[in-house]
Design brief:
There is one protein chain. This protein is of the alpha/beta class. About 25% of the residues lie in helices and about 20% in strands. The strands form four sheets. Strands 3-10-4-5-6 form a five-stranded parallel beta sheet. The protein has a three-stranded antiparallel beta sheet with strand order 7-8-9, with no helix packed on it. Strands 1-12 form a two-stranded parallel ribbon. Helix 4 packs parallel to helix 5.
């Protein structure tokens, strides 16, 4: 939350973090240790019966995502950037292509951040519109309008086949036509991978721990809402009997038996 809230238009999201920190600070049986990067040995020193790992996820750098099941040629050099790079202050130089295969808000937000840094930006997406999933949140039109105002060229229905450090190789997914576009950098917004090294390390040495669980993006990268739900659900069910089957109850229409 802290990193994403520093991106254009997302400042208000800090409330997701601040409200929870405020509520936890009121509880006498909660101890907060900030800026404390722990390893497996440090966690075992706490002597806790239950350990929950919520170490998040990192964006992929190789272009693998919805559209591409294998790494994109050339997505292994210094001119390839991820959202993590941008949020950590590492910005491209020169004409930049943003490859949005995530289809939520991130591609458009990063385009705005790069424009603010004075970079010519082109947004390439396999979808019909930028940030296509935001049709469901009624944000698609404002995002498209904002990109137009910023001078960002949007190239829809298009995948990237390769990048050589000077140009990207594009393929139109409607016609199959291949073209080239000048670029000195590519920001790839595709899939994420869990940061689960700490969980794996504890999994082999959790003597004395009653339960070891991952939640949020460390278990399955998703939206902020999904991460909040994951942690909240675990806390509510921590002292209950585990349920193997789905805990979701569905109301079936009359006459439906299964």
């Amino acid at each position: 939350m802290t990193r994403e809230a520093a991106l254009p238009g997302l400042r208000e999201w800090l409330r997701v973090r601040d409200w929870r920190v405020g509520q936890l600070s009121k509880l006498a049986n909660v101890h907060l240790y900030r800026d404390s990067l722990l390893d497996a040995a440090s966690i075992l020193e706490f002597g806790a019966r239950h350990v929950v790992i919520a170490t998040g996820a990192r964006w992929r750098r190789d272009g693998v995502g919805r559209e591409n099941g294998a790494p994109i040629v050339g997505f292994d050099g210094d001119a390839i950037f991820t959202p993590d790079d941008i949020m950590e202050g590492r910005l491209p130089a020169g004409p930049t292509v943003i490859f949005d295969d995530d289809h939520y808000y991130m591609g458009g937000v990063l385009a705005e951040r790069c424009v603010a840094a004075g970079l010519p930006v082109t947004l390439v997406t396999p979808a019909a519109i930028p940030s296509a999933w935001t049709v469901n949140t009624l944000e698609a039109v404002p995002i498209a309008r904002r990109l137009l105002q910023l001078g960002v060229e949007v190239v829809p229905y298009t995948n990237i086949q390769g990048f050589d450090g000077r140009r990207v190789l594009l393929v139109n997914e409607l016609t199959g036509v291949v073209s080239e576009r000048e670029a000195r950098a590519v920001v790839t917004v595709t899939a994420r991978l869990p940061v689960d090294g700490l969980y794996e390390a504890l999994g082999g040495a959790h003597t004395g721990i009653a339960s070891l669980t991952r939640v949020g993006d460390c278990y399955a990268p998703g939206t902020i809402q999904a991460a909040v739900y994951s942690g909240h659900k675990l806390a509510r069910e921590l002292d209950t009997t585990p349920v193997l089957a789905s805990s979701i109850r569905r109301e079936l229409p009359l006459g439906v038996t299964g």
